[in-house]
Amino acid sequence: MSESQLWRTVDGYFADRLLTDAPDEALTAALRDSDAAGLPPIAVSPMAGKLLQLLAQVRGARHILEIGTLGGYSTIWLGRALPPDGRLISLEYDPRHAEVAVRNIARAGLDRQVEVRVGAALDSLPALADENPPPFDLVFIDADKVNNPHYVEWALRLTGAGGLIVLDNVARGGRVADPDNTDPDVVGTRAALDLIGSHPRLTGTAIQTVGTKGYDGFALARVLA
């Protein structure tokens, strides 16, 4: 058995024992319809989705911001962590992706709590800030990696003390630690990690992961007072 096969096997073992609210038609259909619409197969894994949900629940999140909706799979996991009066805003660049996501979110029964906004996030975020929303309790960043440091800066601006910022795909298959790699996605991810490590209002960590999505990782930061 290859390493990647072993990772997938162990992920399946964990899922069979820990994701016991199955079959979940809304999540299954979200992946199926995203694939049928030709969206890239880069949604978070089921185990990662459950982690996001648990982080939101542990935080007691009432207001969640997601940067990068794709087909709404991670959005559904996060939306299910909200109380009845909670709200999630998800920002998606591609109108076609957003259309699929909106259908998937509605099928999951979350359309009254979840709003998908279409457009470049670096345009949507200033507009959102102008609305003076309540501080977000959790921000999940899973969009174009070159702009990761800008997204972290905006997440910090839009959250309050105790808020969580989750930055996905930080290991970049190990390339993040290669000083000779100048891929823009790697450079953007490094800059975001440096920001988390140096900013006086942030404390964070990064975890490498393996599983159905291969080798990668995520960073988790907490906003200080």
Q: What does the model show?
A:
The chain is α/β, with parallel strands linked by helices and 225 residues long. 44% of the residues lie in helices and 23% in strands. A 7-stranded mixed β-sheet has the order 3-2-1-4-5-7-6, sandwiched between helices. Helix 7 (148-158) links the parallel strand 4 (136-141) and strand 5. The radius of gyration is 17 Å and the shape is globular. The protein starts with a helix and ends with a strand. The model has no long low-confidence stretch (mean pLDDT 96).
Feature tags:
7-stranded mixed β-sheet; 7 strands; 225 residues; alpha/beta
Q: Give the number of helices.
A: 8
Strand content: 15-25%
Oligomer classification:
single chain
Instruction: Outline the low-pLDDT stretches.
Output: none
The largest sheet is: 7 strands, mixed
Average pLDDT, to the nearest integer?
Answer: 96
Element string (H = helix, E = strand): HHHEHEHEHEHEHEE
Helix fraction bin: 40-55%
Shape assignment: globular
Instruction: Note the gap between the termini.
Output: 48 Å
Radius of gyration: 17 Å
If strands are numbered along the chain, what order do they take across the biggest sheet?
3-2-1-4-5-7-6
The count of β-strands is: 7
Helices, strands, pairings?
Blueprint (H helix, E strand, L loop, with lengths): L2 H16 L6 H12 L9 H14 L3 E5 L5 H7 L7 E6 L2 H13 L6 E5 L2 H10 L5 E6 L6 H11 E10 L15 H15 L3 E10 L2 E10 L2
Parallel strand pairs: 1-2, 1-4, 2-3, 4-5
Antiparallel strand pairs: 5-7, 6-7
Helix pairs in contact: 2-5, 3-4, 6-7, 7-8
